[in-house]
Write a structure and sequence with these properties.
It contains six helices and two strands; from the N terminus they run αααααββα. With about 160 residues, it is mainly α. α4 runs antiparallel to α6.
Length: about 160
């Protein structure tokens, strides 16, 4: 079995984060699938992870701090994914993040402008791979990233001792 060091895990996290963000952009802009608001929120942890990993590379003396940040970021990602999956499966009611705006449409222009804003429901799954929604995959990947971040923390902690 291949034994990976902390730097290998950091590179894996960076490559996965970049790949996931690029994949979502290709699915959205290349294939034309519009994401719901929670899908967009689920992208935030990967962007934050990229920033944290770049900072970690530049400030290597504080690796425990950055690994704890990664653990927190992917904990947030897991929570959002579980919540979104609950909405998709009908276990959780859609929140105001997902629902349409409460509009006070008075003029004809207000009505026309509101029709231009396309709101995608969080419970509607528009894109599936092998029968699973992207939220399901995001949950699995978020758990993997959380475990990798925990491994990085444990390796960073061993170095300090």
């Amino acid at each position: 079995m291949i034994k990976l060091n902390k730097d290998n895990y950091l590179i894996i996290l960076l490559i996965l984060s970049i790949t996931i963000l690029l994949s979502t952009l290709i699915i959205e802009h290349g294939f034309g699938y519009k994401p719901c608001n929670l899908c967009i929120i689920e992208r935030i942890p990967y962007g934050l992870a990229i920033i944290i990993l770049i900072l970690n590379y530049n400030f290597r003396y504080n690796q425990i701090f950055f690994s704890i940040l990664l653990i927190l970021v992917f904990s947030f990602s897991i929570i959002i994914s579980v919540y979104h999956l609950g909405i998709e499966q009908g276990f959780v009611e859609e929140s105001t993040v997902c629902k349409s705006k409460n509009l006070n449409l008075i003029t004809k222009e207000d009505i026309l402008n509101s029709l231009k804003e396309l709101r995608i429901s969080c419970k509607d799954v528009a894109f599936k791979i092998f029968g699973f929604s992207l939220t399901s995959y995001n949950l699995i990947i978020s758990i993997l990233m959380f475990l990798l971040s925990t491994k990085i923390y444990l390796l960073s902690n061993d170095i300090k001792k």
